[in-house]
Records
---
Amino acid sequence: MNNFTFKCPTKVVFGKNSVEQLPTLLPKDAKILLFYGGGSIKRNGVYDAVIKELKGHKFVEFSGIEPNPKYETCMQAVKLIKDENVDFILSVGGGSALDAAKFIAAAAVLEAGDPWEEIIIKAKPITKTLPVGDVITLPATGSEMNGISVISHKEKGLKFAWSSELAYPVFSIIDPTYTFSLPQRQTTNGIVDTFAHIMEQYCTYDVDTPVQDGFCLSVIKTIVKEGPKVLANPQDYNARANIFWAATCGLNGWCGVGVIQDWASHGIGHELSAIYGLDHGQSLAVVLPAVLEYCVKEKAQKLALLGREVFALEGDELDVAKRTVDKIKEFFLSIEAQIKLSDFGVDKNDAAKQISERFKERGTVLGERANIDAKATKEILLSC
Ligand code: NZQ
Ligand code: ZN
């Protein structure tokens, strides 16, 4: 096992009516920014539930942060934070709202320079942020228990992740009943994203980490079993709860400490979102199986273990590894994911050309063996 340092300062409050704990979690005298997306929280009652708990607190609102949150919109929120002297940000919504909340929390107190350049491109360690808490409504990103944030720059057509120890939410409220209202597309996206997070951390080469591998296989087994249940019955509380906790644990560090990680599928997927506007989960449903197929020999050991444990496959290692990739595709299709670029009207030749050129220009190399370069990316995308 590799050396690691682990700290997660986020307080998680999980379960039905957990929003009622908001008054005890919020700093009493803080001026709060209630920060949310395009309005799903107004349609499903979450907004009203939060407003009820904000009684007695001073707050202002910022709405309209979009999926694949944009830097440009974030900067409008930064202006509001400064104008209104906000000192606590409460994100209510999916991973996009929360990622944007983490970014504006850092951008609003940045002493000098352009936040896109300083925080994301130069990735200078930030030294202060405003505190962020959240009511998370979409199981997918794990943003509710990590220090990662992914921001898109509309004008430049770029999408990049950044992270900081200071970007962890102080608290996260997770009420699985809030996910009853998710459209099928977003439920599916969330399951695919969770699946991909595990594969990026698990499906590399072995450095003898049975605890982490066990966590990973447990998350995968859970989503394979519970995923179809939430699609068949969106109001199945226990299935929704298990899916949510699987998503949170999928990217809160427990699976990723001390192991070798990959992140090639995410690296390529972010480009598809930046260029063609695909949802994050949609991009992964297309790219992950293609990356696994491309790397099947070098990933055979972990793929075969997964195939045996999750899909009860038998046979020799490479054969099981190959059939495991087929099973993953079958699973994605069974939860109504689309796994070809053409399903989204994207020309694979155009995607392969544009993205491999970007990687060539940037000198990008991805994957646990740093062998997913521009040329490999082109081949992978041509198989999508
Ligand atoms: O904007 P509103 O109106 O709220 O609607 C949202 C949005 O349209 C809707 N939604 C959310 N909760 C709902 C709901 N609709 C009905 N009922 C609910 N309970 O769903 C749509 C998608 O929301 P979004 O927040 O964009 O989805 P998600 O949570 O999947 O976040 C995706 C973003 O997170 C990034 C992705 O790249 C993408 O930008 N990621 C963040 C990571 C992290 N912070 O660790 C890691 C991931 O790999 C990922 O890159
Ligand atoms: Zn992801």
---
Amino acid sequence: MKLQEADAKSLLVAQGLPVPVWEVAHTAPEARAAAERFLADGADKVVIKAQVLIGGRGKAGGVKLAASGAEAEAVAGQILGMDIKGMTVRKVLVGPAADIVKEFYLAAVLDRAERGILLMGSAEGGVEIERVAETNPEAIVRLHAHPLLGLQDFAARELAFAMGLGAHLKAAVAIAKGLVTTMKAYDADLVEINPLAIVRETGPDGTTVERLVCLDAKITLDDSALARHPGLEDLRDPDEEAPEDKEAREAGLTFIKLDGTIGCMVNGAGLAMATMDLVKRAGGRPANFLDIGGGARADKVAAAMQLILADPKVNAILVNIFGGITRGDEVAQGLIEARAQQTRDVPMVVRIVGTNATEAAALLEEARFQTAGSLDEAAAKAVEASRAAGTAGAVA
Ligand code: GDP
Ligand code: MN
């Protein structure tokens, strides 16, 4: 799960990291009011940033400065509703504009191969790190945190010096260590600060000081670990989740869309994988991975059917259920209900074995479903049905 910049920054603040203040606004007048508060507090300018779950907002025109409340309102009005790489901007972050001296890059990422946390830092901040990796790979410093002790002071100092942050050593060490603590505290896969910036600030006595701050923040959380962190689910942005992902999550289904034509409804992740393999072997292409889970009842089956049918590419459906905790007759009942409601008529092949398979078979026969005894047979029939539908579609 990707977090919006403002939410990612809240987590950083909770871990004691230096982040400039901000407010989130949903309308241009709200942005103006926020800007006026920051300007009254002594800011020369404010920064207005699109909140969308995509990088490169700056280049796309989604990050702008404004010097007055009226200008902030106008700029926010331009950014709100803007399309950035397919995402519509629905909110903006407003904060005092930073006077940037230099931009750096610093991130903590889960390194699966090394089974640990990898820190990546660079003095080439503000630009896409992938570009730096391509054009100037030596400019990226890499270092692993200790698996038990986290990022140790000496390692953090080594990283800071290598990044050219010797003049801000104390702050750089605290931030690097803070990224690792943040990763661990929330089970994040990625905590990225780009830019980590040296900014110039004027104190109340008029003297200027330079300070290291996290100007942007990107955090990706491990979905499978969300159950360990009760409050974090609330940070999911409903505006930016694909509708089918949302439906699947709410119905308790594991659903991954693919680009084939045969919709698959299966119980159990392993069986779902095997079913997809067999569809491929029979010459077809699965339209999705869908695990309805153990003990699925009729309503869950109906929800799964709706998800499958919502994909216009689906022209055949293969249902493969191995009844254990899941009762075959419950699934059959669910299929009958789903078909009664469905808006689109798609050929379906059903294979149900295991618990209450006999009762399921009787129900399916009465409702005139096409059934199959073995998985190979089911896959072959589904592929044939999909081909026939595809040809029919091509002719029509
Ligand atoms: P991204 O493009 O989506 O990564 O958004 P960022 O938050 O990283 O902003 C992009 C760029 O805008 C940064 O690299 C900065 O150069 C610039 N920027 C962001 N915030 C400020 C700010 O407060 N003041 C100034 N002067 N520039 C900023
Ligand atoms: Mn950035």
